[in-house]
Amino acid sequence: MLKAAMSPEALERLYRIQVVKPQNFEMLKGHILKQVQGGALREKISEGQVISMLEMLSEKKQETTITFKRRKSSSDEDD
Questions:
Q1: How far is residue 79's CA from residue 75's CA, in Å, rounded to a whole number?
Q2: Cβ distance 47 to 17 under 8 Å?
Q3: Structure pTM?
Q4: How many helices (H) and strands (E) does the chain have?
């Protein structure tokens, strides 16, 4: 299904992503398959579109923040 929806250059780029970052490959593949199944694609996906999708997914991934809350111990109190 991916072969039919993507240009040869885009497919090659996707497979290179799979080798380097398998988790990004899975996210991108899922995104592309959703578009194909939903009928959102009018033409084959180009290599540039793959790069744009990857950047978009990476930005979403970087928005996650972690906050640490420390418990106060009895030694932290001021007398």
A1: 10
A2: no
A3: 0.67
A4: 4, 0
DSSP for 55-75 reads HHHHHHHHT------PPPPGG
Asked if 29 and 22 touch (Cβ cutoff 8 Å), the reply is no
- Sign of torsion over alpha carbons 39, 26, 5, 59: positive
Residue 18 in tokens: 């799979």
Q: Which of 57, 60, 48, 55 is nearest to 30 (CA)?
A: 57
pLDDT in tens, 35-62: 889 888 889 999 999 999 888 887 766 5
